[in-house]
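Annotators were shown the component list below and the corresponding predicted structure, then asked to write short factual statements about the assembly.
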Amino acid sequence: MLSLKKYLTEGLIQFTILLSLMGVRLDLDSYLPSHLPPLHEIILGPTSAYTQTQFHSLRGTSDGYGVHPKSVDLDQFFTSRRLLGCVRALDRLTVPSTEVDAWLVHRETEGSVSSAQTGSSRPSDSPPDLNSSGSEPNRDGQGLEELGATAQPGSSDLSKEDIDLIDILWRQDIDLGVGREDFENRQQQNENEDVWEPLRDGAEPLEPALQVDGETGESIRRFPASNTSGLPDAEPRPEVSDRTDLLLSPLIPDMRASLDLEEQWQDLMSLMDMQAMEVNSSAEDPLYLSLDPPLQLDVNLDQASLPGCSHNTSSLFTPTLEPFSASESPVPQLSSHNSTDLNSTFGFTNLTGLLFQSQLNNTGNITSPTTMPDPLCGLLDEALLDEISLMELALEEGFSQVQTSQLQEELDSDSGLSLDSHHSPLSPSGSESSSSSSCSSSSSSSSFSEEGAVGYSSDSEMIELEESEEANDYQPQYSKFCRMSSQDPSRFRHLPFLEHVGHNHTYNMAPEEPEEMQPIMERNSRRQAGFLDRQAGRDEQRARAMKIPFSNDKIINLPVEEFNDLLAKYQLSEAQLCLIRDIRRRGKNKMAAQNCRKRKLDTILNLEQEVKHLNRERSSQLREKGENLRSLQRMKQEVEHLYQEVFSQLRDQNGRPYSPQQYALHYTSNGSVILTPRNAGGQQGRRPERKDRRK
DNA sequence: TTGAGATGTCATGGT
DNA sequence: TTACCATGACATCTC
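Structure shown to annotators:
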């Protein structure tokens, strides 16, 4: 509407003057109603870009060959098919259909609209009523006729091509900042120089009038009106009615597919969440500690007696050293000093370190358990300790690159997420990166995969996803993620009803949308119409102005061999060749930029998911670490009590207990426990007492 | 009027 | 060398 106002307020008067100077009588008042499209659209005639041709209507009803190559629904169609395949492969989802709702709508309007069917299809023998569907009127001559304009093709001296050219030149002047005065002056100059005379008379000049494109600096060769192309017309433009029929052949509006897509997304995401939960639950499994081989005490039975070893576990976990502090026992209380000395005295594994350290902890002399030396390094399985230490290293000192890569592999295997993955299963449009590289090859072979399209964003998809976000609390990144998609229009060159859709860089909007989607759609429609009219339409206008005899889609998407062959078929000027190459370069780069940005979003989204996954895993491992530490502490206490119990029950040849100050039990590498005199540091090999004892 | 977001385009480097 | 792609940077536009 803004563009309409702009044209009405600024350009319409000038254009009226221009047309009046050329002898064309236009009833511009007929364009004033608010529901009419901008004037330039009316004059330029419809392209599939602006016409509500409802190409999306075939989506979901066929194999997609009815989808317009640049329709916003094409990517969604592919996405829907792929997701539907995934979901069906899971054999657990049933995709509900809203077909019944559509039928009810049809039933209500059945009496009033005799020719209309459910909205999922339109009879081919009944011409569609574009105006009644709320879409923009046909911008070709047909549209002019419907709007009551008197400048109909064939009824005026000016052909549609001339009107296009006039409009293009006028708009280029506006783009260059030429004011109204300048434009009027130029009009007068044109009138004086009779520049338009050949056009009006339809006489073909010997030399086509050359004009310099102020925007591109290129020379525009203008051809007479009688020859609409001025060049070998290898692609004759069809008549309006034929084109319209062809374009409107696949008219099956399909909101159901979009709704299905939302549901499929929800199910797919719930599945992925379930997988993530499984990963977490597996990671949270407690780490069971075991002693293997079992603690073994080798005590010399010849020199020691063992009067009844109590295995009362309650006593084992009593954090005191009552037996040692008994009054009748000659064993004095041990101090930390003794413990240190003992540990430093014996080079091999010393249980006294554990014993006395823990004892001191229990008596309150030593506070932190982390300061004590690892007393179980000889008792616990080394593999277990390695595992614990690795976890601590990972948790407290960060992941090393190797660990990160391992974790990455695990994450990839678990959730399918990858930092560098361009084929993330999360991606609604999957393998666009590889597809972009295969764009030309696919177009050359005229075969394509459903996910390999390269092209433009799907605005209706975005709208649907936004709607689904609001309704289903979708994660917003998914709409952002799905905002850009890829399509390759060249892959649909063989489709007959798309053959004439060559200048479409815009997106179709679904013609029959729910009422609640209308504001969003109108907003996006206005935005895209204005934006794409300037951006994507620029090259189209240039191509038309330069009389490029083939479509921009071909220019952009043809393989280089076919492209060169196409160029060789025509006698093109240098300016035309330059423009064609620019269009090709810009078009390819445009798609590349879209793919690049999509990859960025994919990467960001994947990283976001990965961070969440790592956070969950970190929490799980922290819990596991705490459990391990508690278990380790319990084992320390148990070993301590076992030591005390065994040591207190050892007797020498005289039946007296050994003094803890003079003897200590040591755990050797072969699993035996020996009793060693503390002052016999150089006599470690001597075993005064040895007692085999299975625990 | 300003800022954010989207998109197109150009330049550059890699393949 | 040429064509193509990826991407950073910038411009433009809309909201």
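Statements collected:
1. Chain A has a mean pLDDT of 48.
2. The longest strand of chain A covers residues 663-667.
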